[in-house]
Design a protein that fits this description.
The chain is an alpha/beta fold. The protein is built from 4 helices and 4 strands, in the order E-H-E-H-E-H-E-H.
């Protein structure tokens, strides 16, 4: 059990994961929330490494854990490292 506030947004079909998190007291957004609003509340970002999310988190000065799910994410991560 995490003792920190958690917010999540899942795009597309995710099966039971959103409800599983809700039942454990975590906030799951039905639609993508405005990044500027969410990033102001975050201490860390877990992402698949899309260009927009990675750039926004970097600009907000938030540490990121990037788990690339596709080749584009690997390229975005390489650019962030530079």
């Amino acid at each position: 059990v995490l003792s920190v506030p958690v917010e999540a947004f899942f795009r597309g079909q995710t099966g039971p994961v959103p409800e599983f998190l809700r039942l454990r007291g975590m906030k799951v957004h039905e639609t993508a929330p405005p990044l500027a609003e969410v990033l102001s509340r975050c201490s860390h970002i877990l992402t698949q490494g899309g260009a927009m999310t990675a750039a926004a988190a970097f600009s907000a000065g938030r540490p990121q854990l990037v788990i690339p799910g596709h080749d584009e994410a690997d390229l975005n991560l390489a650019m962030l490292k530079q």
